[in-house]
Predict the 3D structure of the following.
Amino acid sequence: MAEKELNVVGMHCPSCVMAVELSMKDLNGVDDAKASLDTNSVTVEYDPDKITDADLVGAVKEAGFDVE
Ligand code: 9UX
């Protein structure tokens, strides 16, 4: 299992945090996701054999946020 922190642009309230976390958790290969308004980031635990970094970034963008 690998862990990665993505910087997320556009989270402004707890619902945003939930939306980002759920967008990650819905993915096959993601074990856990924790987003934070304090750090504007989401930390993802995932299986690199099942999912790529690009997939993670794509899911955040699909949820309506940007990743830098
Ligand atoms: Mo909160 Mo986020 O009212 O896009 S859901 S700002």
